[in-house]
Design brief:
This protein has about 200 residues and is an alpha+beta fold. Among the domains are: about 45 residues; about 55 residues, no CATH class. It contains 5 helices and 5 strands, in the order H-H-H-H-E-E-E-E-E-H. Helix 2 packs antiparallel against helix 3. The two termini are about 60 Å apart. This is Ribbon-helix-helix CopG family protein.
């Protein structure tokens, strides 16, 4: 046999009179109306918790998709840049010097220029909007004072806005968080940390 749970409800005199009048008009006991109200409240809380969980899952999925899109676009831009550069390099036709040594010198110079310019094709800014946005976001990010390798980003939590380290899921893991102070992370002072 399941144990019954007891709830305590405090009503002022006006509320009690309204509840009595409503129960009398519906011809049901007052306790029944109170039970219905509690059931409705508990069901509403369950729905809120469920919707909150769904919202978290959607946010995580969107974040993963955004990172994958950024990665795919960056890789696509690197491949396209490399192909464009190779096409340009291959399209350049060497004049046919009369001297074979002069042709070999020209070919070595061309190879040298090619290998010097090759890394620049991979480090130039990408045209993909998502990747450019992430590059700007990373460039503007503050370095994490705890690990020194991560960057700090803002996030909305249960207690409001806070800042977390980008190495939260990396290896080695950095779980540093800082409260928000007008859109900037609030770092602990040297006196507070005891240093």
């Amino acid at each position: 046999m399941a144990a019954k749970q007891t709830y305590s409800v405090r009503l002022d005199s006006d509320q009690r009179l309204q509840l009595d009048a409503r129960a009398e008009s519906m011809e049901v006991p007052v306790g029944y109306l109170i039970r219905l109200a509690i059931d409705a409240y508990l069901k509403q809380q369950e729905e809120k918790d469920y919707l909150s969980e769904v919202e978290k899952r959607i946010a995580v999925t969107i974040d993963r998709l955004a990172r994958q899109v950024a990665k795919d676009r960056a890789e696509q831009q690197m491949v396209v840049g490399m192909l464009d550069y190779l096409r340009e390099w291959l399209a350049f036709t060497l004049p046919t010097p009369a001297d074979k040594n002069q042709a070999n010198d020209l070919m070595r110079e061309r190879d040298k220029v090619f290998w010097e310019r090759l890394p620049l094709q991979f480090t130039n800014t990408t045209k993909a909007k998502v990747t450019t946005y992430l590059e700007e976001k990373t460039r503007a990010a503050l370095p994490c004072p705890t690990c020194g390798t991560g960057s700090l980003y803002p996030k909305e939590g249960k207690r409001g806005l806070y800042w977390y380290c980008s190495n939260l899921k990396a290896s080695p893991r950095c779980e540093a968080t800082f409260p928000d102070a007008d859109g900037r992370p609030l770092f602990p002072s040297a006196e507070t940390t005891g240093q």
